[in-house]
Specification:
Length: 470
């Protein structure tokens, strides 16, 4: 079959619609009366298990505000100046292995001195074993003292009394009771971490505590964020695993924290993230490759179970992420189902898929404005569809885009090269042509019986990294 079945989302629409209605009520007005808020304050003075549960969810009367939690500062204090990026980690005691120190070391070691000025790392020690926390804080302080002094590393803890009840939780998805308790508490751990980080920076990156970073990952992030200016997004993904490498605007952290708290016992956090993204109208996953972060742990934080998951899109040196400036896509190749032309150019992990092309067929990219391009790389076919490549084709660039009877086109083109082995890569494009590019076109030079997959179209502009906005 040539059609892949996509995994269906969990049937959760009624639950989410109800949430959205309550969300609007809370956002539009004071759903909780001031008298109730005063009563809530009194409740905090003498919290029982059930009262803590009420406290957490009554706080949802203000989705745009932070949750009232008094954190313990275990190491470091926040600086008054907002940074560019906060990196959040939540960690608990594992039955086997501990990778937190390696993760922190990787973050700092893989960043340049200039990049270190723009980041702050916040570690939430979310285990209720205070002796374990104290010993770990001593290790962190000993190994990363200079980063703590410089305000680049904070270690915090949300006291246990702020947590909702973790007993008698819903047994959704037939999970065993201890698994439900683990993932429910993890949702609350993350919520308190997000809540703390709200005002520390402009952007927030969530990592897990067993992760290795690519070199100069912040520069790569800045490049991506700059390329997305003017477009709407809620969450950008820089790893395909779990809650690793998920980027948010810091302004969205209060809502995400409230969301995780409201539905903490319903499902795992990475499933909740999908619903949160959808509620804020980002329909598709926006994931970038190569991945900037790799899972390195061998033992899970859940019961010490083995966890050998690896992101096969990770690259140690992945600063070379393409720019792909804003553009429109056109093709006269017969498109299969919804594998349209935009899929090859977008950051979504999908591709263009067309029926057998004929001589003269084209795949055209027209930029919103003329652009200096330094490098072009186009890959056709996939690992499981190795015959669906472009066997005979040429890569062209053009200028002076005009409207014609056949649609929008450039008035003139220059051929940069021929496809070989289903792909093409051209460097120093800006030195080979004497104009700013408005069109990039793939032309089929001989028909073929096989279908055509254009997996990725990657373009790099000549804009230097130093021009990225902070």
């Amino acid at each position: 079959m040539r059609c892949f079945r996509k995994r269906s989302m969990f049937p959760f629409l009624g639950f989410l619609i109800a949430f959205l209605l309550f969300f609007n009520l809370y956002m539009d007005g004071g759903f909780v009366l001031e008298a109730e808020k005063r009563q809530l304050g009194e409740t905090l003075m003498h919290p029982s298990t059930s009262e803590r549960y009420v406290h957490t969810f009554t706080d949802l009367s203000n989705f745009s505000g932070t949750i009232n939690v008094t954190y313990r500062y275990l190491a470091g204090i926040p600086l008054p100046r907002k940074k560019y990026l906060t990196i959040g980690l939540s960690s608990v005691k594992r039955k086997k292995g501990n990778y937190l120190l390696e993760t922190i070391k990787s973050i700092f070691d893989q960043s340049s001195y200039e990049e270190l000025k723009e980041i702050v790392v916040v570690v939430h020690l979310a285990d209720f074993d205070l002796a374990w926390c104290e010993n770990l804080v001593q290790e962190i302080t000993r190994k990363f003292a200079h980063h703590i002094i410089a305000g680049r590393l904070l270690v915090i803890q949300a006291p246990e009394e702020y947590y909702p009840s973790l007993d008698g939780l819903k047994r959704n998805y037939n999970d065993p009771e201890d698994r439900v308790r683990f993932r429910s508490k993890q949702n609350v751990d993350y919520a308190f971490l997000l809540n703390f980080c709200t005002n520390l920076s402009h952007f927030y990156m969530m990592l897990e505590d067993d992760v290795r970073c690519s070199r100069n990952f912040l520069t790569a992030l800045k490049k991506v964020i700059t390329s997305r200016e003017g477009s709407y997004w809620v969450m950008l993904e820089f790893s395909k695993l779990g809650y690793i490498g998920k980027l948010y605007h810091s302004r969205d952290l209060p809502r995400l924290a409230h969301f995780l708290l409201m539905f903490y016992q319903e499902m795992p956090c990475d499933w909740l993230l999908i619903h949160f993204r959808g509620l804020l109208a980002q329909k598709d996953v926006i994931r970038f490759k190569p991945s900037l972060f790799q899972h390195m742990g061998y033992y899970s934080s859940y019961k010490g179970a083995e966890n050998k998951l690896k992101d096969d899109d990770f690259e140690e040196d992945s600063i070379d992420i393409p720019d792909n400036p804003p553009a429109s896509m056109y093709t006269n190749i017969n498109v299969f189902e919804n594998y349209d032309a935009t899929k090859a150019y977008s950051t979504v992990d999908e591709y263009f898929w067309g029926k057998p092309p004929c001589t003269g067929d084209f795949f055209l990219i027209i930029f919103n404005k003329s652009t200096k391009i330094s490098r072009i790389k186009i890959v056709t076919g996939t690992e499981d569809r190795q015959n669906d490549v472009l066997h005979h084709g040429a890569l062209e660039v053009g200028q002076k885009a005009v409207d014609t009877k056949q649609g929008r086109q450039c008035a003139s083109y220059i051929t940069l090269g021929e496809f070989k082995g289903g792909g093409i890569e051209v460097d120093s494009v800006d030195h080979k042509i004497g104009f700013d590019i408005e069109c990039v076109r793939v032309v089929v030079t001989a028909g073929q019986k096989e279908w055509l997959i254009i997996r990725t179209v990657s373009l790099w502009t000549t804009q230097p990294v130093s021009q990225f906005k902070k």
